Amino acid sequence: MSMGEKGMQATTTQRHRPTGSPLRVLAWRTLAAVLAIGLLWPPHMVMAQAAPSGRPAPSSVLSTGGGQALIDPADTVLLLLDHQSGLFQTVKDISVAELRANTIMLAKLATLLKIPVITTASEPNGPNGPLMPEIQQFAPHAVFVPRKGEVNAWDNEDFVKAVRATGKKTLIMAGVWTSVCVMFPALDAKAAGFKVYAVMDASGDPSDMVSRTTLARFTQAGIVPTTANAVLCEIHRTWNRPEAADIAQLYTMVAPNYAALIESYQKAQDVIKQQKQ
Hints:
Layout: H1 3-16, H2 22-36, E1 76-81, H3 85-88, H4 96-112, E2 117-121, H5 134-138, E3 143-146, H6 157-165, E4 170-175, H7 178-191, E5 195-199, H8 208-221, E6 224-226, H9 228-236, H10 244-254, H11 258-276
Parallel strand pairs: 1-2, 1-4, 2-3, 4-5, 5-6
Helix pairs in contact: 2-11, 4-9, 4-10, 7-8, 9-10
């Protein structure tokens, strides 16, 4: 390399190197880290707005074909099954606090993106107890379908009619117990031609053994096991959308440490603003 080329390379390196105080360098490094994890997607990755008129959520399929195998919010209904206070006391495969937080996040996500929600309980006046009130609080549009004692929600004609009335073919299910209240309607819905997702950490079982057996049976039957965080990411898809700030807050519910990432990014922005003043 000639001396002139070396000088040009040095000049280019200096031009792209952060300059200024240590705080400014820290701010730029924090911003770079956030960008590296995909906080801002390039413009060509914006979701296509091609859903038919009257559909409450946009299509998740991009012009590139991305999203073909992912959840389409425009074709999705959230089914929250038997999240009852009495049954919570029997859950041993996940902490009740985490189960509730993940369920609340799903309710908030559905409300934010106008995804239909159906809730149900076999017998809310019995020992299994009432449904957790946060679902109705954070998803006031949720439709409650009371059952007449049926363990399997798909055995209840009113419940099945409510699901079919949405016109959606993708069912995201969560409930307590996973092995019964989610498993039974999931199997029947799959047999009826629906695409079914089971949110494992917004559901609960009496033991780890029961949970592992349930997971195996789901996969054997073609039901997609997933998590609250994965559902959020899969429906979210891009930060280049008007709900980005609200979605970011939902991540703090399923991944509490994500709040630290948001705080560090905000602090970096504050430092940059102060130095410009």
